[in-house]
Amino acid sequence: MRHSLCLAGCAAVAVISACAVLQPRSAPLPASQVGAASQPVPLRIAQATDGARTESGRAPPYVLCSGDACPRVTPKTLALASPAPTAAGKRDQGPGAASLPPQERTPPAAPAERRADISLTVHFRFGASDLSARAKALLDAAAGQALDTARTSRLRIVGRTDSIGPQAVNDALAMARARAVRDYLRPRLPRWPASVDIEASGACCYAADNDTSEGRLSNRRVEITWSASDPEAAP
Asked: Which residue among 31, 70, 135, 202 is least packed, with the fewest CB closer than 10 Å?
């Protein structure tokens, strides 16, 4: 009886051992994956599409994803990340230009000031070439203005008369009036203009009708013009 029980126990042990040998063993996990199942998966922010803009021109929205579930970076995505082009009409001022203090920035060049000519007209009594007090006051003011603005390149003096009297007499009177203005201005302009033009004519270029005394007074005149332009530099 005991012999039979011993044989039965040995057979059971042999069967259990055989099953243990036949059962496959699971491969051990890599060290990098040990405990991975117990750790939370890290999340990151990525675009919901491949980076292409929508029909409205706006960039696609961003989503929260993890691992392989996140969209991959594509050339379109990289294009969206590039800096926007500068607006038309703006120029790059170079690196560090915006960081300079205002006192160290180069101010824009101011446009060149165009100097206008100075013009005036003085009038004379009938048959006279001497200057009145009013004419001298006008010439003094104009000469001071010409000196302040350095308009001494060119001076033009034009003498005129009314229509009363012979042509030859009026021509001589017109020239006498022009020379009277020139002689009065010379000591008042230390820097005499490089070019001085004198013109005189007694029967030309009336400023008003000679049928009235007021019109004839307007015609008995000398016109003076200071010009900043150099006549020799003209094309």
From this structure: 31
